[in-house]
Design brief:
The chain is mainly β. Helices cover 6% and strands 49% of the residues. The protein has one helix spanning 184-195, and strands at residues 8-9, 15-18, 21-33, 39-52, 58-64, 70-76, 79-84, 89-94, 104-105, 109-114, 118-123, 126-128, 132-134, 141-146, 153-156, 163-166, 171-174.
């Protein structure tokens, strides 16, 4: 599939492959001028698309107006689910109907995934000092949302994983561990402090 990216934005996170189809959420930008006369590119809408992988034929598409950026796109039963930071909501765009499922007010979502029946997401309220620290919130945890429902169910209180992978029978939780280089001088300083 070839896609022109002039005036649009697509990220690898905005693509899903499911059942021989490719789903893409593409952001369309328009030129605007601010009050000082500077030209800006402003994202006013998204186009949600479904392609057949074998023929590369566009099967369905739907435009939706979202000024705010969307994050963590997943697809379940021809419905795109995603999180909007600005509005703190889990939103959806259903390719087959003009009316979408209800939007769910849910703050601090950090990852969304799905299988054929349900959408799963991690919610974790954090605050930043030098490093991110989890803050108590009734929204923290792993949540399950059945397609067409507007009532998510908490399936785990812990939210200490970074990503989820949903299969037909299992939900896998992953933590991304980073190895950060530290200088020899830094290590010696800790060693000296420990020996005092």
């Amino acid at each position: 599939i070839s896609c022109s990216l002039v005036g649009s934005e697509m990220c690898i996170r905005d693509r899903n492959i499911s059942d021989g189809n490719l789903y893409i959420a593409e952001r369309i930008f328009e030129d605007e001028t601010d009050e000082y006369g500077y030209s800006l590119k402003v994202g006013k809408q998204y186009i949600f698309k479904k392609y057949d992988l074998k023929s590369c034929k566009l099967l369905k598409s739907k435009n939706a107006n979202y000024v705010n950026g969307i994050r963590y796109v997943t697809v379940c039963q021809d419905t795109f689910y995603f999180f909007c930071d600005e509005t703190q909501t889990v939103n959806n765009v259903f390719l087959d109907k003009d009316v979408n499922y209800p939007t769910i007010q849910h703050p601090d979502v950090k990852f969304i995934t799905s299988n054929n029946d349900c959408v799963y997401y991690i919610s974790e309220k954090t605050e930043s000092a030098i490093i991110l620290k989890t803050v108590e919130s009734p929204y923290n945890g792993i949540w399950k949302l059945e397609v067409g429902s507007n009532k998510p169910v908490k399936i785990a209180d812990k939210c200490d994983c970074d990503e989820l992978l949903a299969t037909k029978n299992f939900l896998y939780c992953y933590t991304i561990n980073y190895i950060l280089p530290v200088s020899y001088t830094h290590l010696r300083a800790h060693e000296t402090a420990a020996n005092l």
